[in-house]
Amino acid sequence: MSDDQAGRIAIPQPIRSDGAGGVDNGPRDVLRDLQNPDLLVPPKTDNGLVPNVRFSFSDAHMQLNHGGWSREVTARELPIATTLAGVNMSLTPGGVRELHWHQQAEWSYMLLGRARITAVDQNGRNFIADVGPGDLWYFPPGIPHSIQGLEEGCEFLLVFDDGSFSDLNTLSISDWFAHTPKEVLALNFGVPESDFDSIPNGQVYIYQDRVPGSIKSDEVHSPYGTVPLTFKHELLAQPPLKTPGGSVRIVDSTNFPISKTIAAALVEIEPGGMREMHWHPNNDEWQYYLAGQGRMTVFAGNGAARTFDFRAGDVGYVPFAFGHYIQNTGDRSLWFLEMFKSDRFATCRLINGWL
Ligand code: MN
Ligand code: MN
């Protein structure tokens, strides 16, 4: 954003420094144009047909419940994003994402606050853990799980290994009970039908409960023990790989063994820095921007290249093997997550000494 001498915001125009383009006096959203200088005035090298690879969570529908909210960026919002889908969710202190399961694996990064996560596997083995900022979890497909906000509440990003996933279309305990005859519930659990008089009449999704006590007080003894591979990983506790102009923390099935279908990196690009020209030889890349401002140019072959601007809360996407680079365009570090539907993180880099 640039200001004139009177301190007013200068209205950006679609005019390149060589004079190409012209003034836009028509209907327009100046605030969006200010946020997207590389869409308004693309680099001269941009060309051809690269589909849209960006969608902001701020343009997604909000699901509001007592106990929290969620919104999602899936292939319905961003059609090119077929391999992964993302959900941004917040839970109040004590707010619960109810026990549920789904056909897709769930990978998550805790953004703010703390939560208690629970799961149980097909052999009756328990999992319970408290997670805080920078912690991850991974629930394999079909494994039932729940999430509850602790004293300070929480906000997190969920990533699913299917672009057509929706968190509003999962298998929930409340939903199944509501659509099962009470006589069947009574038979199943060996209790009177009247025990089910006050169950919800549909899916609950998120609800408000009391803040739980210590993790010890919540632990359930199982004769089958606990899950053999932990579902939790402390990503920020990993020492970063420092590079000129930034840092990176990589997590995949080599250091988080349960995470068989999602590999990820937490990337920092310092002001003036750049994630160099590269591509990935395993799968598409799904990005979530955490802080700062940047731009990414995607090269699709056959003369096609296109540049997009990104800021916190944006999702970016790079199809398999497409070349790309990311520049910090702000005055503080740019932080983002990049995820792949893969058991391993893999990059081909176009730098001196590599090829
Ligand atoms: Mn889930
Ligand atoms: Mn990449």
Provide a quick synopsis of the model:
The protein contains five helices and 23 strands. It has 355 residues and is mostly beta strands. A hairpin with a 5-residue loop joins strand 6 and strand 7.
Structure characteristics:
7-stranded antiparallel β-sheet; binds manganese (II) ion; 5 helices; 23 strands; single chain; 11-stranded antiparallel β-sheet; 355 residues; mainly beta
3D architecture notes:
By secondary structure, this protein is mostly beta strands. It is built from 5 helices and 23 strands. Strands 2, 3, 4, 5, 6, 7, 8, 9, 10, 11 and 12 form an 11-stranded antiparallel beta sheet that branches. It has a 7-stranded antiparallel beta sheet with strand order 1-20-17-22-15-14-13, with no helix packed on it. The mean pLDDT is 95.
Q: Tell me about the biggest sheet?
A: 11 strands, antiparallel
Small-molecule binders: manganese (II) ion
Number of strands: 23
Q: What would you call the structural class?
A: mainly beta
**Straight-line distance between termini:** 39 Å
Mean pLDDT: 95
Strand content: 35-45%
Question: Rg to the nearest angstrom?
Answer: 23 Å
Poorly predicted ranges: none
Please count the helical segments.
5
Helix content: under 10%
What is the helix/strand order? Answer: HHEEEEEEEEEEHHEHEEEEEEEEEEEE
What global shape is seen? elongated
